[in-house]
Specification:
- This protein is of the alpha/beta class.
- It has three domains: about 5-90, no CATH class; about 90-105 and about 180-245, 2-Layer Sandwich (D-amino Acid Aminotransferase, Chain A, domain 1), CATH 3.30.470; about 110-175, Dna Ligase, domain 1 (2-Layer Sandwich).
- It is about 30% helix and about 25% strand.
- Helix 1 crosses helix 8 and helix 5 (about 115-120) runs antiparallel to helix 6.
- The radius of gyration is 20 Å and the shape is globular.
- InterPro entries: R2K_2.
- This is ATP-grasp domain-containing protein.
Length: about 280
């Protein structure tokens, strides 16, 4: 038994050709989907029906593993019942969830959480931090309604603009700006680090053992956010820290070893399918 991979081909800034080629090299079927953002449901139905991704009568019986951007993965989770379908547990990818279990490893451990509107109200009276501190702001949500960024003390009008875009009730994480010298991404599958690479300041297949060991420590923690997921490790002041965790199904993989990713993820998908259907 082998899973069918469903891969979105029009992800912004992500070239999925190497993933598709590796899936086919390992003898598995790939369904390529060009996701229509203007008509997401119709593009999904086209894939399900016209493309014939499911060869059996009951879609829920298919062992299917999907990869794409956040919008694509959200639609799959709402409309399809494949096993595993997606490894993208948005609840566990919230900072307010995984910080509770992995907080001791965090780079931004001096954080506060509050609604975006309350951050605007308290901007000039954030007693958690010294005056004139530049703050890093990111969403609590693992679906990332906006990309985290640094706000200088005199640039709080940027918060007003963000409120107009996504609303005042969105929960955000606020922490003092930290200098980051390098970042690595590791892929974890079944509590094991299977591959990794550097993506900042530039991309490289090499990573230091200190960053690998921290990723492996996170992988062996009793609490896990999903069967497969990604971990970002940052270097700051010569030390390694957990920057964030992300899903497997909609995370960029940079120069990570694609052969290892496809092999381990496919086995995990089959194991999960067999566990579910007996």
């Amino acid at each position: 038994m082998k899973p069918t991979w469903v891969i979105q081909t029009n992800m912004e800034g992500v070239d999925t050709k190497s993933m598709i080629a590796e899936v086919e090299r390992q003898g598995m079927e790939v369904d390529r989907v060009e996701y229509d953002y203007a008509a997401p449901l119709s593009s999904l139905e086209k894939w399900l029906i016209a493309e014939g991704v499911v060869r059996d009568e009951d879609a829920s019986d298919a062992c299917v593993l999907c990869y794409g951007d956040v919008d694509f993965v959200k639609m799959i989770k709402r409309r399809a019942s494949f096993i595993p379908g997606t490894w993208c547990n948005f609840e566990n990818m919230k900072c307010s969830t995984y910080f509770a279990y992995l907080g001791r490893h965090l780079l931004n451990r001096e954080y506060a959480m509050m609604p975006l509107g309350d951050l605007m109200r308290r901007w000039n009276n954030l007693t958690e931090y010294p005056p004139n501190t530049s703050l890093f702001i990111r969403p609590d949500s693992g679906a990332k309604p906006f990309t985290g960024y640094v706000v200088k003390p005199d640039k709080h009008h940027k918060i007003e603009s963000l409120i107009k875009t996504i609303g005042p009730e969105v929960l955000v994480v606020v922490s003092p700006e930290k200098q980051i010298d390098a970042e690595w991404r590791f892929v974890i599958c079944n509590k094991k680090v299977i591959t990794g690479c550097r993506y900042l300041p530039d991309e490289s297949v090499y990573f230091p053992q200190t960053s690998f060991r921290l990723a492996q420590e996170i992988a062996q923690n009793e609490w896990q956010p999903d069967i497969c997921y990604t971990v970002d490790i940052a270097e700051s002041g010569g030390e390694k820290y957990l920057l964030e965790i992300n899903s497997f199904s909609c995370a960029g993989l940079y120069l990570c070893d694609m052969e290892s990713i496809i092999r381990h993820a496919s086995k995990a998908a089959i194991d999960e399918w067999r566990e579910y259907f007996g």
